[in-house]
Amino acid sequence: MSATLLEVADLRVRLRTPRGPAEVVNGLSYTVGRGETVAVVGESGSGKSVSVLALLGLLPARLATVTGSARLDGEDLLTMSPERLRQVRGPGVGMVFQDPMTSLNPVLTIGRQLVEGIRAHGEVSKAAARERAAGLLAEVGLPDPRRALDRYPHELSGGMRQRVVIAIALANNPSLLIADEATTALDVTVQAQILDLVAGLQSEHGTGVIWITHDLGVVAGIADRVLVMYGGRCVEDGTVDDVLERPAHPYTRGLLGALPDLASSDDGELATVPGVPPAPTDLPPGCVFWPRCPVRSDPRCATEQPPLAVVGASDGALPHRAATWCEEGSPR
Ligand SMILES: Nc1ncnc2c1ncn2[C@@H]1O[C@H](COP(=O)(O)OP(=O)(O)OP(=O)(O)O)[C@@H](O)[C@H]1O
């Protein structure tokens, strides 16, 4: 069994929009190891959600063209039959998205949805599945989990619904968990409880995690590696220390700029970078960040797209990379 769980190579997503084709994800390549957590950060609209929806075949074909490959345990998610993909989601991949109502069926009780999820992928009696469902709800911190099993989604608060979605995603001990702003709406105590639960799953089952978040406190607390997205591209990636302590891309430095002291920050949000991100229907030539870059000075910035290249010395086994013509504010 290889140490690499997921290998995404040259992932590209083009959406058809009323304003023409939008290059929303542009050649994203990264890996997630077993038991590893990769945090994906970047401003709203940088392509984080679309990039993971594409992995799971959740973008409608009439809207999106997806190319590249995404091998989970060697099997390409992007070319799998829809039937195989359905088998893989659940035991293979658990997903938690921002809006719990999109993941829950409003006409089925919470218990039925959890029990169905558990029984769909294993030989488990109804009673045993119900027992496990109540246990999972307790683990995600739902008060009175047995009563909650008989409730409908609309009878729970937003935070409770989100915890139910997390319980469903974890029900089959997935080998890969994808969480898109999964705990953003939850209070810090519940959030900490869920992060602990995921950490337990990782050490017990070697679950790999892709965690999309705006919260640098969460990144610093749980991530092994960080991938920074801008304009549909990875502009920087590396170990959590490389990226947070020695950011090489001017965009990453901007995102981290307002953070006074990361070590003591529990709930630091990404800083606001002056200017607006490019429209994916109208990406600039050259470096995608060039129009907003406060340190642009190289003639290539406006004309030539910088490759994602190794920068400086890394303290991890995986390289620290950035796509910029600048290093430490000056051209390389
Ligand atoms: N259904 C859609 N139709 C047209 N454009 C879309 C659609 N879904 C997403 N987009 C566009 O794709 C781009 C990437 O969006 P995406 O949701 O992946 O960004 P994000 O980085 O996840 O943002 P957020 O942090 O707000 O979730 C945006 O420009 C968005 O407007």
UniProtKB/TrEMBL annotation:
Its main location: membrane. One of its GO terms (biological process) is peptide transport. It is a peripheral membrane protein. Residues 6-256 form the ABC transporter domain. One of its GO terms (cellular component) is plasma membrane. It holds the Pfam family oligo_HPY. CDD domains: ABC_NikE_OppD_transporters (cd03257). It is found in: Cell membrane. Keywords: ATP-binding, Cell membrane, Membrane, Nucleotide-binding, Transport. GO terms for molecular function: ATP binding; ATP hydrolysis activity. Belongs to the ABC transporter superfamily. NCBIfam families: oligo_HPY (TIGR01727). This is Peptide/nickel transport system ATP-binding protein. It comes from Geodermatophilus africanus.
